[in-house]
Amino acid sequence: MENKIYSQIDTEKYINFGLNLNEEETGIRHQIIELTPKEIIDAHNHTASENETSNLHPRFYDDLVSTFPYFDISEHKVIDQHLWGENKKVKHVCFTFPFEGVDIKSGNNYILSNSSETLIPFYTIDNQRTSLDDLVNNPDWKGVKAYARQISPEATIISQFYTRGVLQIINRRGLPIILHLPNDLVHDHNELKELLSNYGDIKFIIAHMGFPNQERMVDYKQALISLKRENLFFDTSWSNDSEAMRSVLKILGPDKLLYGSDQPLNLIRIKVVEHPILGSRVAVGYPYHWTDSEEQQFYREKLNIQTDKLTTMHFQSIKAIMQATSNKTEINQIFYENAARILRH
Question: According to a count of CB atoms within 10 Å of the terminal CB, is the N or C end of the chain lower?
């Protein structure tokens, strides 16, 4: 039965708000356009029509991941114009929204049927089903995505959503995978180390920089050292941690970092804050449906967060990359060459 709560979300307003650039964002945009090559590969994007996500589980409604419960392929092109201008060619690695309740099979079909020079299709594993025939038999898939939050209860270890059988198939195909860790790099690095060794023909792209924590940065760097393998990569999606990015560049090398946006979630204006009772939370620049008005008022009045000046995660991540390196060769690698080599695109 169709879940109508998500159809009431005004995603167009959210998009327009994210694209109404403030002064800081305009400055960052100008800088990154000057630094980056004419062709960019964005290694982390979500795409699905409203039909595929109409049965999205209601448990996500109060979570920021539901900000854009669907996102049409054509909307990527509109956003590219605003964020990158007319002179940049942006290619997007795309996969469907891999949450519980999404029609993964239809989402995969939607993406594959719309693959083009600028849309690189990644197959999303459907952990509710067993058939992988399309992945096995169709050479058009360029990579694979699976997600811990697609099953309930949510997966707590990698092998619960990237099973041995799935990994064996991917290894035979020699495809890259995007791995959203169920916890973080520090917690999951022992299991990841085993997978890197056992499936040497898979290129593991760790999403969101592996969720680094500034308080555990020493452990994060130690995990990087222990995981140094030819088939390990990181993407920058929804991360604003310049130290983590700098650590990957220095410890693993500049050929191991890929630009990823996590579009459309990169359009959210947000700041991570510490609530005295609730712990790590977010202050936002817009009354998204998943926010609490009293909580947000607390951040403005008690923590003096200027929410009207917040930048989107897109520009926070871009700024972090520029803080991690200003080397033009490394910038070219991050924004194009590394992904082009991995994806053979």
Answer: N
Q: Is 153 exposed, middle or buried (0-12, 13-18, 19+ CB in 10 A)?
A: exposed
- Between CA 144 and CA 47 the distance in angstroms is 14
Which residues on adjacent β-strands are paired with residue 273?
281
pLDDT the model gives residue 345: 64
Q: What is the mean pLDDT of the segment spanning 143-159?
A: 94
Q: Is residue 223 part of a domain?
A: yes
Contacts of 339 (CB under 8 A, 6+ apart): 41, 43, 93, 258, 259, 345
Please check whether residue 147 lies inside any domain of the structure.
Answer: yes
Q: Which domain holds residue 303?
A: 270-310
The torsion region of residue 211 among left (phi > 0), alpha (psi -120 to 50) and beta comes to: left
In this structure, what token pair is assigned to residue 177? 């995978």
The rounded percent of the chain whose pLDDT value lies above 70 is 98
Residue 294 and residue 182 in one domain: no
Q: How many CB atoms lie within 10 A of CB 331?
A: 21
Does the pLDDT value for residue 173 go beyond 70? yes
Same-domain check for residues 156 and 294: no
What is the model's pLDDT at position 2? 60
Average the pLDDT over 225-236 and give the result: 97
Task: Indicate if 278 and 139 belong to the same structural domain.
Answer: no
**Angstrom distance (rounded) from CA 47 to CA 96:** 5
Instruction: Give tens-digit pLDDT for 297-312.
Output: 999 999 999 999 999 9
Cβ atoms within 10 Å of 187's Cβ, excluding its own = 18
In a domain, 105, yes or no: yes
Q: Distances in Å between the alpha carbon of 242 and those of 72, 303, 316, 320?
A: 31, 24, 10, 4
Which amino acid is present at 131?
A: S
With cut-offs at 50, 70 and 90, classify the pLDDT of residue 37: very high
3-state DSSP of 222-269: HHHHHCCCCCEEEECCCCCCHHHHHHHHHHCCHHHEECCCCECHHHCE
Please name which of 298, 309, 256, 261 lies closest in space to residue 276, comparing C-alpha atoms. Answer: 298
Establish if 1 belongs to a structural domain: no
